[in-house]
Specification:
This protein has about 375 residues and is mainly beta. The protein has a single domain, classed as Thrombin, subunit H (Beta Barrel), CATH 2.40.10.120. The chain contains 7 helices and 22 strands. The strands form 3 sheets. The protein has an 8-stranded mixed beta sheet. The chain has a 6-stranded antiparallel beta barrel with strand order 8-9-10-13-12-11. A 6-stranded mixed beta sheet has the order 4-21-22-18-17-5, with no helix packed on it. The longest helix has 10 residues.
Length: about 375
């Protein structure tokens, strides 16, 4: 069925969606699974674009999360490392060699009970990340959050507690957080993370550290290219979170839209909670940048996109939003990695057929 966008939606975003395959389907729950069988996609097993997921908590287990995440644990959680040695296999913007040509597909944002009202980033393109003004009570701020998780090896050995970032994204299941693959799964030799929690609008001044609640993961998903091979071209992840106070995440705070297989020539606004020096992890930041280059990570898959951004570890998983208007837009990548040789350049995976297959596989999932 077609999806009719409300007349109150921002006009710029409406124009951006004109002529695309704008898709929506009725909400229907999916059964919980442990390790989910892989399915064939346009990015086949040979390229790593197949979804893989893990059930990481029951509702009762999720309720124990607040006991696990003591103030001391939260304060001592380390930022997930995103800095790689060496240098990018750089291409000037527009000269990437592995951008797939799938069908452009967009899904619209939704306001939740908090409503459409919001602001818009006014930051200009700059190397330095800009602190998002508090309180984080309007879009896009309230849709971005901090992620906490415990990392384990594949045989169940505890590694440590870490932090990332994530974004609430609209879906029929109303329960989706979009983030980086390494923020849900440790990659080769590791397992899915545990005690995974998402706190939208974290540290929002007088609204409190968790003004919209703490949302624990029921299922964590990524692509085989990341989970099995550590391929940064497929470093995308998704969490299906349990309800809070009887409400699903998108019902409560809303969710950004998401866009796949679109030209990488965009103006990106990247959000995150950088936690490594000189940042504290306590504030939400944003970077505004056009596409400045592409990288060719080891392995198959599309080239990754590069923007100017000096955010540090802890920001990984934060959404790159395009066509941002009135606080609403379309997530088109996430903070993934950077190189020690160029700390002012942030790379994120291209939203191609692999990322689309992940979204399509989880969009009906709910809790």
């Amino acid at each position: 069925m077609s999806y009719r966008i409300r007349a109150s939606r921002p006009s710029v975003l409406l124009a951006a969606l004109t002529g695309l395959a704008l898709l929506w389907l009725p909400t229907q729950p999916a059964a919980a699974e442990h390790r989910v069988a892989l399915r064939s996609t346009a990015d086949s097993a040979a390229t790593g674009g197949e979804p893989v997921g893990f059930t990481v908590s029951t509702s009762a287990k999720a309720a124990e999360g607040d006991r696990y995440w003591t103030p001391e644990r939260m304060a001592n959680a380390k930022p997930a490392d995103i800095v790689l040695p060496g240098q990018p296999v750089a291409h000037p913007a527009g000269e990437g060699t592995r951008q797939p040509a799938g069908k452009p597909t967009a899904y619209p944002p939704a306001p939740g009970i908090e409503g459409w009202g919001g602001g818009q980033s006014t930051a200009e393109s700059s190397v330095q990340a800009t602190a998002v003004p508090r309180p984080y009570d309007t879009p896009p701020d309230r849709l971005n959050g901090k992620v906490f998780f415990a990392k384990y090896t594949a045989i169940g050995t505890f590694v440590g507690d870490f932090v990332c970032s994530g974004t609430s994204v609209n879906s029929p299941g109303l329960s989706l957080v979009w983030t980086a693959g390494h923020c849900v799964h440790g990659g080769p030799g590791y397992g899915a993370h545990r005690n995974w929690r998402f706190i939208p609008a974290y540290s929002s001044n007088f609204l409190g550290d968790a003004p919209y609640g703490t949302w624990y993961a029921k299922e964590l998903w990524t692509l085989t290219g990341w989970a099995n091979n550590g391929n940064r071209s497929y470093d995308v992840g998704a969490a299906i979170v349990w309800p809070v106070g009887g409400l699903h995440l998108t019902t409560k705070i809303g969710g950004q839209g998401i866009w796949f297989n679109v030209t990488p020539f965009q103006s990106f606004t990247a959000f995150g909670y950088p936690a490594a020096p000189p940042f504290s992890g306590w504030l939400q930041y944003q970077c505004v940048s056009p596409l400045l280059g592409m990288d060719d990570p080891a392995g198959s898959g599309p080239d990754t996109n590069g923007i100017i951004c000096d955010m540090t570890p802890g920001s990984s998983g934060g959404g790159w939003v395009i066509n941002l208007n009135g606080g609403w837009g379309l997530v088109n990548s996430v903070n993934s990695y950077k190189y020690a040789s160029d700390p002012n350049m942030m790379f994120g995976p291209y939203h191609g057929d692999g990322a689309l297959s992940l979204y399509d596989f989880v969009k009906f999932k709910t809790s």
